[in-house]
Amino acid sequence: MSGEDGPVVRVVLHPRDLAGCEHRLYLDHAYPDLARSRPDTPEAQRRKAAAADHRAAVREMIRGLHSDQAPGTVVLIDPDATHAARAEQTLSACAAGAAWIWNATLPTDREAGRRGHAELLIRDGDGYLPVIVVNHRASYPAKNARRPTGTAGAKNGTDGTVPVADGDTNSGGAANGNESTNGNGAAQGNGGPKVTVTSPVWAWSPSADPTRNGRNQRRDLLRLAQLTAMLTELGLATSSDPARLRAGVIGLDADCIVVYEMASALTDYAEVFARRMAIAEQQVSTTPRRIGECRSCPWWERCGPELEQRRDVSLVVGANQSRILADAGITTIDQLAAHRGGPPDEWPGNARFDDAILTAIAWLQGIPLIRRLDTPVVRRADVEVDVDMESYGEHGAYMWGTLLTDTTDPTCEVRYRPFVTWQPLPTTDEGRSFGEFWTWLTAQRDAAHEAGKSFAAYCYSQQAENRWLLGSADRFAGAPGVPSRAEVEAFIGSAEWVDIYEAVGRNFICPNGKGLKRVAPVAGFTWRDADASGEASMDWYRDAVGLGGGVPDPTQRERLLEYNEDDVRATKVLREWITDGARAAVPHRDTLLAGRDA
């Protein structure tokens, strides 16, 4: 690219610039010095550290899998070298025909304005395909699926694997949002059934895999597309025909490579890249709009006040809903609050339009909750146990906190009891603490039944608890006190397992969100630690167990125990308030809607 006065230096886009907030990209390039000088948030630091640990584990796994092969089969690019040196090492490894290249860095394409690196380049035929390693799941088990004999890991693809025909692999273009599963997570090849394609991690041998569904992340697909485009430009891709180009993702479980066809992803990428480049070069202006990533964005201190000043409708509805409202001419909270009539044509069917209007009214009047029902309802029992689980990333659940209340006996002490391991995760001692928790919980349930009393256990947002209940039953099967998966499924599917988060959603509209720390203060609960949060607990846990070679800090253990106890007490206070105080304290939706005409 050149101009009258010589070459024009283009903005260079990294794959991370291709997804997420467009306005953040605009600001990053409009104020590059500010963007470079800002430190990572603690949350970002934790994510980066976890991702680095995962990549290191995958690297060592791959080295081990190929340790019996000829030297040079796996080439590791020096991570401490400069970018230019890493790119030179990568090109040399490609020229030498290395089969697997770890930490591959491609030369920056300054004319096109792009850069990128892949955790892996795998040789396939006369070229290379990119494989990235991500710290989230790239696939999940398909329900009621059975893998054909020999498909999972045939090193040579000769013992029953299903050959992959053109057009039968996962379609990158299927992902139109941040995440898409396109039915079962794959493409529909040649009019046939949808299929997910995977390869074992020790050899490039793609085959149809009916045991998995792909979990397509658009961010991953755009990164793969940029890498594929760069390899093509360098003459290193496996084919010049886009329909034959493939790429892969190794996810959190690191038990396979999920395979994608790149043709449709490359088409999507070209459109995205052109727009993002125009934004970065300040040729297209953007305006702020609140979306999910605003919570951790360093530009929020600039965007937030601007949105509030113009009373932007995105402050009270989701990102997609705010776009639909804007297209219908509703751009401010005041306009939404005053709206009469039905929703815009594109309004999603699973979202109540009246809730959006009421949330706008609540924002204008400073109302924290709105009652849906005349009398709020939540399941209560004679014996109630509040449960809160604490986990450390994907490494395990180190604590199960409980609070026991006998509502039939006011003289009975309300007792907090945690079941915890302070051995650094992952550890088999996690199974011991889980087994003790389950034994205690079922003993309380059985005792209540024997006494002729009703029983219920409560959590706040059961998705996390259910995941670790089931996962712990699977991982520690056979350990003392650990139930079978069937026992756990029977319990979480029963009426005795109650999600207070779901009860809040049934009873209230929550303008400020449904998180426990948003709703429980309305019921009068406060946490003892002003810094208490799930994010902060990750740092506390690292100090509590001495991760990274540190000395375990007993004060942080006490802090985690106090935080966990406050969480279960908050659930109890909120539940009791729903029953006893919410009707009088929270305005009803009909009252607010009618009040617009007063």
From TrEMBL:
InterPro entries membership: RecB_nuclease_TM0106_put (IPR019993), RNaseH-like_sf (IPR012337), YprB_RNase_H-like_dom (IPR038720)
UniProt-annotated stretches for the region Disordered: 143-217
Occurrences of domain YprB ribonuclease H-like (ranges): 494-578
Superkingdom: Bacteria
Bias type Polar residues, positions: 168-181
Official protein name in the record: TM0106 family RecB-like putative nuclease
Organism expressing this protein natively: Gordonia tangerina
